[in-house]
Amino acid sequence: MLKLAVLSLLNGISVAALYFIVASGFTVTFGLMRTINLAYGSLFLIGGYVGYQVGDLTRNWYLAMIAGSAIAGLSGAVLQWGVLDRLRGQDMRQALVTIGLSIVAADVLLAVFGGLTYQFTPPDWMQATVSLGVFGGYPAFRLLLIALSLFIGVFIWAGLTCTRVGLAIRAGVDDREMLSAIGVNPSRLFVIVATCGSALAGLAGVIGGTALSISPGEDSRYLLASLVVTIVGGMGSIAGAAVGALLVGLLEQVGLLYFPNYSIVAVYLVMVGVLALRPQGLVRGTA
Amino acid sequence: MPEPLLELRGLFATLGNTCILHGVDLTLASGCLAVVGRNGVGKSTLCRSIMGLVPDVTGRLRLAGQELLGRPPHEMEGQGVAIVPQGRRTFPSLTVHEHLRLAQKSKAKAWTIERVYQTFPRLAERRRNRGTQLSGGEQQMLAIGRALLRNPRLLILDEPSEGLSPLVVEQLSALMQQLYRSEGMTLLLVEQNFRVAVSVAERVAVMISGRIVHEDEASSFASDHEAHERFLGLGEAA
Ligand SMILES: Nc1ncnc2c1ncn2[C@@H]1O[C@H](COP(=O)(O)OP(=O)(O)O)[C@@H](O)[C@H]1O
Ligand SMILES: [Mg+2]
């Protein structure tokens, strides 16, 4: 019983790690830049599918990962530059346009890649099982996923708090005009940020397709997860996204063990609770 | 003859559906020009138009002979224009030091973070405080420091003495004079405080309903009571 609990705890943490990678891009573009991109889940799916194709052709998982991130980053850049930047500050229009785009993307992806479920094959060394003593073995890939999410979190946090790009992002969110008046082109800056955020969604697509799998419908699942994580954790906060992702991942996985029928409900109950008691989210601030 | 640094001809600016500037003609070769006028005549709109912050503008705006009307603010900044906007507009989520780090152009230029701290020691004491935790005077120093770090050719100051104590206003006046007298910066100063305007600037321009209606040497304008009465509605006491 304890063994099962520990394993489901680890499952929860590794799912949380995946949610964190998806949501960290989302919390920066949505939470910080206040750009509403409801096609964010499609970027995840595009990254996953294109990554899969590249991996299938080249038999190289690393190339798949790079291709998935790159294509999602590129799509996100075009979306930001071509659509979202022009609808700046018009929340409803951004929402409607991106919902429309995500529906189109879902159908196009279905037409091209079919309704199959794909799973990536990672390099051999990642397929190993790590022994956890009395608790048995655990897939190395999932432990790597947890490490990767930590690395990404620290990287973004340091970037936002320490680099001039991070300062410019925070300043641009506060007062776009004044940022421009001190010489920074805010549109270009936000395209760069959207590119990085979208690349994270694509990366998550490949990683998610390796740890779990990818198939039609995953776009809305990860968009919802990102929204919940961002709202629960606190808009634009990387630490908040980590807390939110852990909460959602653990509830989902541990819930599957103890109250399987209600584990999804529990996630939304937490969100409702947070919104009622602490509408700004659990963690405040940008970092 | 060298081109004047700033030349405006027939500048019109519209906010929403209201035309605010009705053909501003203004030439600023170098030194410091103060623009005075009652509340709401369009002084801030003039400042913002020059910085590129007003999208709906027509007419001519030349900087050192180059036509730049309609350029976005970051391009105007690239051409050497900086602004200390009315109301300071420091960034709420950045600390004092982060403001300065973001604004610093190069350590080899005249204005560096160290020099801003030397000029405004109060900012050095508050370096870890956020924009919103500062007093009005401190925010003004920060807004000025932020603009100076861009090392502009043309510095626009929109009511910099607003809400400052007399002592700080005194220091600020001395700084502005130093900037244009010994550092070769050109200043466009919008001032409600008439005394500050005539004591700091070389020339004074009067704005009424979106036009420049009068321009004079600061020294003669200071004693031209008839002009005060006519343009600014000031009595003899001023
Ligand atoms: N966004 C706006 N839309 C329409 N009118 C505006 C707007 N902002 C300011 N105004 C009007 O423009 C006029 C000039 O404003 P401003 O340039 O700030 O004047 P000043 O700086 O001389 O006090 C004022 O009468 C003000 O009411
Ligand atoms: Mg004003």
UniProtKB/TrEMBL annotation, chain A:
It is found in: Cell membrane. One of its GO terms (molecular function) is transmembrane transporter activity. The chain crosses the membrane at residues 6-26, 38-55, 61-84, 96-120, 140-169, 189-212, 224-249, 256-277. Keywords: Amino-acid transport, Cell membrane, Membrane, Transmembrane, Transmembrane helix, Transport. GO terms for cellular component: plasma membrane. It holds the Pfam family BPD_transp_2. This is Branched-chain amino acid ABC transporter permease. It comes from Bradyrhizobium zhengyangense.
UniProtKB/TrEMBL annotation, chain B:
Keywords: Amino-acid transport, ATP-binding, Nucleotide-binding, Transport. It comes from the Bacteria. Transmembrane segments: none annotated. Residues 6-234 form the ABC transporter domain. GO terms for molecular function: ATP binding; ATP hydrolysis activity; branched-chain amino acid transmembrane transporter activity. GO terms for biological process: L-amino acid transport. It holds the Pfam family ABC_tran. Belongs to the ABC transporter superfamily. Involved in beta-(1-->2)glucan export. Transmembrane domains (TMD) form a pore in the inner membrane and the ATP-binding domain (NBD) is responsible for energy generation. PANTHER family: ABC TRANSPORTER ATP-BINDING PROTEIN, HIGH-AFFINITY BRANCHED-CHAIN AMINO ACID TRANSPORT ATP-BINDING PROTEIN LIVF. This is ABC transporter ATP-binding protein. The lineage of its organism: Bacteria, Pseudomonadati, Pseudomonadota, Alphaproteobacteria, Hyphomicrobiales.
